[in-house]
Design a protein that fits this description.
alpha/beta; 5 strands; 44% helix; globular
Length: 121
């Protein structure tokens, strides 16, 4: 089962409770509501293969690009940026995210990535 670390603002936590249900037994979802706790969780868990990062955490402009660059230092980690703003998603891709989508598309994007990773095993 793939471990998915979600780092996004606390106002979005209900979305990730629903995401757990949508992905059923295909992924273990770990949710962190701020940049520091998300980075600490990532650093302490070498099993994490997918990281979902909100573009703007506690901010109205993207502020997680440096976090993405630090996560990207670990090889083979998929990083998905989430934002309703297309320009913010593009900015996060430039920072090193492998994918980007709106929150309402996240379950579909994760399912596709998990399926691709399962084929490699």
């Amino acid at each position: 089962m793939e471990t998915v670390l979600v780092i996004d603002g606390p106002e979005h936590e209900p979305n990730y409770i629903l995401l757990k249900d949508q992905l059923e037994n295909r992924a273990h979802i770990v949710y962190k509501s701020d940049i520091d706790s998300g980075e600490k969780e990532f650093s302490g868990d070498m099993r994490t293969g997918i990281v979902v990062v909100g573009a703007c955490i506690g901010s109205v402009v993207p502020n997680t690009q440096d976090l993405v660059k630090r996560i990207k230092e670990r090889p083979r980690v998929k990083i998905i940026a989430i934002s309703a703003n297309k320009d913010f998603r593009e900015e996060m891709i430039c920072a090193g995210c492998t994918d980007a989508c709106e929150r309402m598309e996240l379950a579909q994007v994760l399912s596709k990535i998990i399926e691709e990773l399962d084929k490699r095993i």
